[in-house]
Amino acid sequence: INQNREGFRSGFVALVGRPNVGKSTLLNKLVGQKVAIMSDKPQTTRHKIHSILTRNDAQIVFLDTPGIHKPRHKLGEHLVDVALGALKEVDVVLFLVEATSPPGAGDKYIAEQMKTIKTPIFLLINKIDLIKKEEVLERIVSYKDLLPFAEVVPVSALAGDNVERLIDTIVKYLPEGPQYYPTDMITDRPERFIMAEIIREKVLHLTSEEIPHSVAVVVEQVQERPNGVVAVNAVIYTERDSQKAILIGKGGNMLKEVGRRAREEIENLLGSKVFLELWVKVKKDWRNRINDLRNFGITE
Ligand code: GDP
Ligand code: K
Ligand code: MG
């Protein structure tokens, strides 16, 4: 790799948009495999993950940035800084909005934050599978004046509609450059991190409102046994005893279900049988303790 092939293009693309517009879903569709977890809860994505798409003529490195939104606590502030900082380093910004509604306060806030950014911004009208064909134009009109967009592309991240066209358009905006990553590499994050994220996704899916923001998952040990089974040990950290109780559930049922779903997916990821052991621990107020965040690997 890293050879300079004639005419080869490469570069970095950031995805932004208010929570739940489908950034992680699009990212997974773009690279053809699950690299970012998805849920209908805001702030599901906490980390800057590089995902990589390689074709014969180009390599695109995507950044799934944590959402830009008005911060409510230190973790929130950190996420906004990460997101805005990323936009200046990249070649293209994909600004995702939802086809199902006109611009809302969240979209306008993000557009305002991006006003001074010189990077070409694509407006992506996502979830077009949820509206009628003849409504698409009307939606484009309602969003297109938020910023001077370089391109406007209606897509369905879930169904994959127009995603190929989007990739072709992105490539046109990339400079000639080297292949940064090997052809078969789709993310720069270690497997351990992806495993922790898969577990966190299952927690988000199975629990109600009060749990998600207070959960961090750390994979403490990964060990391949002589029989080929991979033993994974992970801790789910919560802020309060009450949350710990919810996560464990009656007779341990919640934790068992989280474990069952996560194990299946980790088995797919690793391509081997997995023995997953989950623990729940209370660590009070971790969100406001930057040092703890470092230990959890949330800040760099
Ligand atoms: P993020 O917060 O922007 O990363 O959003 P996610 O990718 O986590 O998606 C939020 C929710 O919207 C999930 O339930 C997705 O399944 C759903 N979603 C994302 N893209 C589409 C789409 O194109 N069509 C439909 N119908 N749902 C979508
Ligand atoms: K989400
Ligand atoms: Mg996300």
Describe it for me?
Pfam families: KH_2, MMR_HSR1. Residues 207-284 form the KH type-2 domain. With 300 residues, the chain is α/β, with parallel strands linked by helices. It contains 9 helices and 9 strands. The protein has helices at 23-31, 74-89, 105-113, 136-143, 163-172, 191-206, 241-248, 253-270, 290-296, and strands at 9-16, 49-54, 58-64, 92-98, 121-126, 151-154, 216-224, 230-238, 274-282. The strands form 2 sheets. Strands 2-3-1-4-5-6 form a 6-stranded mixed β-sheet, sandwiched between helices. Strand 4 (92-98), helix 3 (105-113) and strand 5 (121-126) form a beta-alpha-beta unit. Helix 6 runs antiparallel to helix 8 (253-270). Bound molecules: guanosine-5'-diphosphate, potassium ion (K) and magnesium ion. The site of guanosine-5'-diphosphate has 20 residues, from helix 1. Residues 19-20, 39, 41-42, 44 line the site of potassium ion.
Q: Characteristics of this structure?
A:
binds potassium ion; 9 strands; 2 domains; Rossmann fold; GTPase activity; alpha/beta; binds magnesium ion; six-stranded mixed beta sheet; GTPase Era; GMP Synthetase, Chain A, domain 3; 9 helices; GTP binding; KH_dom_type_2; three-stranded mixed beta sheet; binds guanosine-5'-diphosphate; single chain; Small_GTP-bd; 300 residues
Q: How large is the radius of gyration?
A: 20 Å
* Computed structural class: alpha/beta
Largest sheet: 6 strands, mixed
- Give the overall average pLDDT: 82
Total number of beta strands? 9
Strand order in space, largest sheet = 2-3-1-4-5-6
Q: Beta-sheet strand percentage?
A: 15-25%
Percent helix:
25-40%
The CATH superfamily label of the largest domain reads: P-loop containing nucleotide triphosphate hydrolases
The low-confidence parts are 42-47
What characteristic shape results from the CA principal axes? globular
CATH class of the largest domain: Alpha Beta
CATH fold category name of the largest domain: Rossmann fold
CATH architect. name of the largest domain: 3-Layer(aba) Sandwich
List the bound ligands. guanosine-5'-diphosphate, potassium ion, magnesium ion
Number of helices: 9
| Count of distinct structural domains | 2
Distance between the termini: 26 Å
Order of helices and strands: EHEEHEHEHEHHEEHHEH
